[in-house]
Amino acid sequence: MDKNTWIGFLLIAAIIVGFTMLNRPSKEELAERQRVQDSLRLVHMAEVEAQRISDSLQFVAGQATGEEAVYVTAEEQQERLQAAYGTFAPAAQGEEKHVQLANDHVRLTFNTLGGRIERAELLEYHANGDSVNPLCLFRGEESAFGLTLITANNRILQTSNLYFTPVQTENPNVLIMRLPTSTPDAWLDFAYELSDNYMVHLSVTPHNMQSELAQNVNSLELQWKQLIPQQEQGRKFEERYARLQYMLVGGEMEELSETKDDSEKESARVKWIGYKDQFFSTVLIADDAFASSEFASTLQGKHSGYIKQYTTHTSIPFDLTGKTPTGMRFYLGPNHYHTLKAYDKDVEKEDRLYLNKLVPLGWKIVSWINTALVIPMFDLFTGWGLHIGIVILLMTIVIKLIILPFVFVSYKSSAKMRALKPQIDAINEKYPPEKMQERQQETMKLYQQAGVNPMSGCLPMLFQFPVLMAMFWFLPTAIELRGKSLWWADDLSTYDAVFHWSVNIPFLGDHLSLFCLLMTICNIGYTYITMQSQATDPNMKFMKYMMYAMPVMFLFIFNDYAAGLSYYYLLSLFFTIFQTMIFRWTLDDKKMLAEMEANKKKKAGKPKSGFMARLEAMQREQQRVARENAKAANKRR
Questions:
Q1: pLDDT tens across 96-118, in order?
Q2: Residue 128 CA, distance from chain mean position
Q3: Does residue 174 come out as left (phi exceeding 0), alpha (psi in the -120 to 50 range) or beta?
Q4: CA torsion 423→426→428→429, rounded to 10°?
Q5: Among positive and negative, which fits the CA dihedral 38, 39, 40, 46?
Q6: For the stretch 339-366, what's the b/e string if a residue is b when 16 or more beta carbons lie within 10 angstroms of its beta carbon?
Q7: Rounded to the nearest 5 degrees, what angle is found at the Cα of 437, between the Cα atoms of 431 and 438?
Q8: Is 372 exposed, middle or buried (0-12, 13-18, 19+ CB in 10 A)?
Q9: In the beta sheet, which residues pair with residue 188?
Q10: Closest among 209, 211, 166 to 191, alpha carbons compared
Q11: Contact (Cβ atoms closer than 8 angstroms) between residue 205 and residue 192
Q12: pTM score
């Protein structure tokens, strides 16, 4: 090999070595990785231990092995429980009992097995199709919550497998679930305190547990799993908005995919974890922070009755002495913007939860329009006690008035272009397609003389678009529309199917929504009116057909959307047609043409506007380049 080859090999080797050194994890990163591995090992050991203990209990209870059953004395049974559970042997057996805490908003049912919330009901809401029973976020085995305990004799136990004892308190909103030990004055308390809204605080406090638990324990491994039941009629949109979201310490939001099975390992500190449905959420909030977290989201079968299953494995700080209780909160309630926003009221910025981010309001500028305009306007009209249909009608009128100046400018620009069509046709006849640059130059000259800016019809639409998108994001996620009826629509938060069929038609589904159908018909009518008032090229018939195809496509797109959104678009199109008719009556093409002709005379000899001058300069430059390229091509020949 020559010298250059050797130099190449040495450079490649240097790059590889340098890249390896630069990307080598730091001591802190290595320690964090080891912590995660240890956490996984503990969880696995806990599962193995739980299975071993279960097998042991079956043996102790005299379960049959083969054809014979094994019976032991009470003393032998106690000895085996002590060997399996150590100091927590008194909690190894018991009877499941249920205790409730409730306020005007939620009713929580606690199970002594695991000392956990077994059932959460929202008293002000109902599931789709059930107008009697309160909406249930989860019940029974649909939710699992537990902490991993390491005993002084290295037993690894799960609180979810142990029996707690309810302790009466003077406060009716406080429930203490106590985990006893074989030492009379040593126990572990799960203290739940229900606030006057949707928040319940959990405080985990050890009492004299220094000799009962491992001395090196400074954190607790936490496992939390929940199945999300289908609560709404429109499963498609419930799946779209249901997702696992979590907030990092510092305010950065992360989320798992809502369209496929997904998982994530998070080494950064996490402030809260949200198990979100379309309109409701269960959120676990740390008083301090969660660390070494793993999240998973799994889609459920279409006919399972569930949307997704969320799973979290994480750790939370733990003070063995009990001087600093391990605190966390559960939010069990609706995805209502003001309800979630209220938890940050009078709170320092660094301590805010930003739970309102659970409500999807669109991209940054769209979200800003929603929070600054749409939501306050919605609150104002609903505060008057009006029917939701009237509220959306008033919002449509206000929005139309706001964007009216932009729509007028756009329509006037189109009208001027239409009035100039005979002159544009004359230019097109004078300059054949082979002389496209000359044709464009003459057309721009005509526009400049008449005082027409071709961009004036497009720019107003750009200002309207964010407002339209704000309503597109707001209405399908506004829980205020849930369960609200309007005419034939029983629930404006989902589709208003008036026709059903058994066959699933691609892109359309198994139903037809009436508000969406009416919106499509109205949109076709508006397209017809628009096409009649615009100057179109007869050679571009395909574009004309495409203009009519777009409204039909909207039928397939919006058939599954919330009826409230289709109702808004129907009203918006109706008012747009009304505006167009008014513009047509007030703007006379002949009068505008006369004004433009007068404008031509006024501008004769005057310097061109900056925009038109730049545009013509660009055209001249293009012509110059084209001529030079043609000359160069002739020389090569």
A1: 999 999 999 999 999 999 999 99
A2: 21
A3: beta
A4: 170
A5: positive
A6: bbbebeeeeeeeebbbbbbbbbbbeeeb
A7: 45
A8: exposed
A9: 179, 206
A10: 166
A11: no
A12: 0.77
